[in-house]
């Protein structure tokens, strides 16, 4: 196990930040299954949290099957087991060392299919939310890249929500956690003109969903996902 960089947390949901930090350490290959984590006293000091907060995080990780907490053996990372029905996909993908391109190809396939489904199934309420996201994106083209990246995330998640497919919505959330760093990286140095093109493509997807044109929605989303797809293929 490499030195894990876990930052002190300050939040009402501090235990979830601990969970995310450990998951990120697994994804970045800083922890391998079978590794023993720091002791509870060491972790509480490192994270600047109370023992109850740490134990809440450990309960979540233990429930998901990610760690085993033993009074004698301490805290250990479990080996993923396909027979465990509760094992989250995110954990399996981390230890399978799935490539960025493979993750993006899955995300791309879901987005294209869900854009088509959204044009058939969207409700007026979901459509209104998507419209507001587009408006905000237009207003923040010149803003900090993190704001632009968050709005990009909101748009793609809302398209899936418009489809009415809860399973794909959860799967997209999983993929976004795994790809967060890479997704922000693609936007970090994006010129303003390219940002405008991104928002324009978002608007075209929105319009085809609004007008309930499934094939057009599919084609527009496919065109939109083509450039980042080339980016990942050429990395």
From TrEMBL:
<dbReference type="InterPro" id="IPR036388">
    <property type="entry name" value="WH-like_DNA-bd_sf"/>
</dbReference>
<keyword id="KW-0670">Pyruvate</keyword>
<dbReference type="GO" id="GO:0003677">
    <property type="term" value="F:DNA binding"/>
</dbReference>
<keyword id="KW-0804">Transcription</keyword>
<dbReference type="InterPro" id="IPR036390">
    <property type="entry name" value="WH_DNA-bd_sf"/>
</dbReference>
<protein>
    <submittedName>
        <fullName>GntR family transcriptional repressor for pyruvate dehydrogenase complex</fullName>
    </submittedName>
</protein>
<feature type="domain" description="HTH gntR-type">
    <location>
        <begin position="12"/>
        <end position="80"/>
    </location>
</feature>
<dbReference type="GO" id="GO:0003700">
    <property type="term" value="F:DNA-binding transcription factor activity"/>
</dbReference>
<keyword id="KW-0238">DNA-binding</keyword>
<dbReference type="Pfam" id="PF07729">
    <property type="entry name" value="FCD"/>
</dbReference>
<keyword id="KW-0805">Transcription regulation</keyword>
<dbReference type="Pfam" id="PF00392">
    <property type="entry name" value="GntR"/>
</dbReference>
<dbReference type="InterPro" id="IPR000524">
    <property type="entry name" value="Tscrpt_reg_HTH_GntR"/>
</dbReference>
<dbReference type="InterPro" id="IPR011711">
    <property type="entry name" value="GntR_C"/>
</dbReference>
<dbReference type="InterPro" id="IPR008920">
    <property type="entry name" value="TF_FadR/GntR_C"/>
</dbReference>
């Amino acid at each position: 196990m490499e030195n894990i960089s876990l930052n002190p947390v300050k939040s009402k949901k501090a235990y979830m930040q601990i969970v995310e930090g450990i998951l990120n350490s697994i994804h970045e290959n800083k922890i391998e299954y079978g590794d023993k984590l720091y002791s509870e006293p060491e972790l509480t000091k490192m994270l600047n949290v109370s023992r109850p907060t740490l134990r809440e995080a450990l309960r979540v990780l233990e429930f998901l099957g990610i760690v085993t907490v033993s009074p004698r053996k301490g805290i250990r990372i479990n080996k993923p087991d396909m027979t465990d029905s509760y094992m989250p996909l995110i954990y399996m993908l981390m230890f399978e060392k799935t490539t960025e391109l493979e993750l993006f190809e899955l995300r791309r396939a879901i987005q294209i299919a869900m854009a088509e489904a959204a044009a058939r199934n969207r409700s007026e309420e979901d459509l209104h939310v998507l419209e507001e996201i587009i408006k905000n994106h237009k207003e923040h083209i010149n803003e900090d890249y993190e704001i632009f990246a968050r709005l990009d995330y909101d748009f793609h998640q809302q398209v899936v929500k418009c489809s009415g497919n809860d399973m794909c919505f959860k799967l997209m959330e999983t993929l976004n956690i795994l790809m967060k760093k890479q997704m922000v990286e693609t936007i970090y140095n994006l010129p303003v003109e390219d940002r405008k093109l991104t928002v324009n493509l978002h608007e075209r997807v929105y319009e085809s969903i609004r007008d309930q044109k499934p094939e057009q929605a599919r084609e527009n989303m496919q065109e939109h996902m083509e450039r980042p797809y080339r980016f990942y293929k050429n990395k």
